[in-house]
Amino acid sequence: MAAELGASRLLAPYFSSSQIVWTIIIGTIMIALALGAVFGGRWADRDPDPDKLYLRIMAAAVWISLIPLVGKFVILLVSGLLIVTVSTNFLVIAAFVSCMLVFVPPLFLLGTVTAGLNKFATDSLDDNASVVGRLSACNTVGSILGTFLPTFVTIPAAGTFVTFLLFSGALLAIPLVYFVSMRARRVACAVSAVVFAVSAVLSPMTGFAFWENRTTLAYEGESIYNYLQVKNLSDRTILSTNVLFGVQSVTMKDEGLTGMYYDTALAAPALADHARSALILGMGTGTYARQLRRYYPKMSVTGVEIDRKITDLAVRYFDEPDDVPVSTYDGRAWLAASRERYDVIMVDAYQDITIPFQMSSDEFFTMVRAHLNPGGVMVVNMNMISDGEGSINEALQTTIANVFDGACRIGTTYTADVPGTTNRELFAKAPTRAELARYDGCSDSWRRTGEIATVSEPIGSSMRSDVRADALRAATWERTADGELAAYMSGVGGRMTAVGDPSNDDGDGSLILTDDHAPVELLGMRAIDQLIAEEAGPYRDILEKEGIGGLLRAVQ
């Protein structure tokens, strides 16, 4: 279990910690253990020599001790080869091949142990069941320790690399004690001890992103939830939770507009009927909160961030506003426990290639809408531009539009792509007081979870007029008196695109995400394939035309 949990943390900075990656880790490790049990039983029956059993334990321990030193190089090599050769399912294939190369061999060897121990511990068939029961109990106890210790003790305190070394060291001690007491296999013992010592010394000296310039890498570490990396560049400070696919938060060192999605998201307080309060689900390093405090200084801002370590880094490296309270909580759980309402709610919890399914469903967005004041606006940072039939954005946009339209309105939801990025901001407006007064017996409660239910003559949302470039610019100027921001909002208005109102006639019901059915991991994986195809396409052409030599020259 310790190796399994360590595997998830080793792969997460490169492939995310989605359910897809977890499935691959569990599946490959179970395959390795099953094959080990089969071959271990055969070997024990054929040659019941305990020396060979302890040698297999020693080999597995040494292999695991080398994972923090060598594993990241293997993962990057696999990723580099596949990214220019594989067109679809990159995440699945790369994670699977990495697991097979890095984790299957030692887990296969460990899988042979139980069968061998059963052979050596059984003296008579009369007590064979008792022996098997005790061995199973020991395995279970070991799994319990291997589950709780890495998650709550070693990884948060010392990191993934040290966790591998601690558990491999404990495992290596077993055969070393055995062979030393038997005065056998001295060379194997010495070599194993030396290899372990070398890995223990060198592994902490290199991080997950070992190629990064150490002069700009301000911090690299781990929390219970994430791999964390802070880079301090000349014009910005960056927090990343994944070393291959983008960044989590960015803070520009110059005041004013950032040139990133935070600027587009500032349309939310201009679109809302009032701009007195805001809630940020996925506070990160506080960049959006900082922008709100700058342009809307009278606005009360509250943040929610599930990872306490990110909040600590925000204070240390990103100058997070000290007058913004931040709760360490899951965003949805926080909403469920709160009765407060806000004029603006920012959902910024989608980390590049990992979308929490519980924060993408009909039920979640219904909860967000219920926490908005009349005429309040939700803005969602959708990290990947992936359009077309069957895309993650199509599902999210349809789900949100269906929730905010309810049974009584249409035209509530708009999107604006952020130039030069893979971000798209979605804006959805709750019913205004005037709209609620016009409902005339219509109730949004008529729409059941996951279903589309619109009355024959729905009310057109005020968003249709609010998102026009002139209206957005005027509202921004009226509330901020900032000419630069008002001019930028005029451009945002020009980029606004209406999300189609969901209709049963168009088959949109199948796109709505619910707590029961929200395949966001698979949909997100398609988006990753699209991004890789766009970025790696030219390199694939070079590989086909000029071979490996041409590819190497191109990346130099």
UniProtKB/TrEMBL annotation:
DNA-binding as a keyword?
no
| Residues the record marks as active site | D348 (proton acceptor)
PROSITE patterns tied to this protein? PABS_2 (PS51006)
Domain PABS: start-end pairs: 192-434
| Transmembrane intervals | 20-41, 53-84, 90-110, 131-155, 161-180, 187-211
Q: Which InterPro entries match?
A: PABS (IPR030374), SAM-dependent_MTases_sf (IPR029063)
- Read off the Gene3D superfamilies from this record: Vaccinia Virus protein VP39
Q: Does the keyword Transmembrane apply?
A: yes
Q: Which UniProt keywords apply?
A: Membrane, Polyamine biosynthesis, Transferase, Transmembrane, Transmembrane helix
Family recorded in the similarity comment? Belongs to the spermidine/spermine synthase family.
Protein's UniProt name: Fused MFS/spermidine synthase
Q: Which organism is it from?
A: Bifidobacterium santillanense
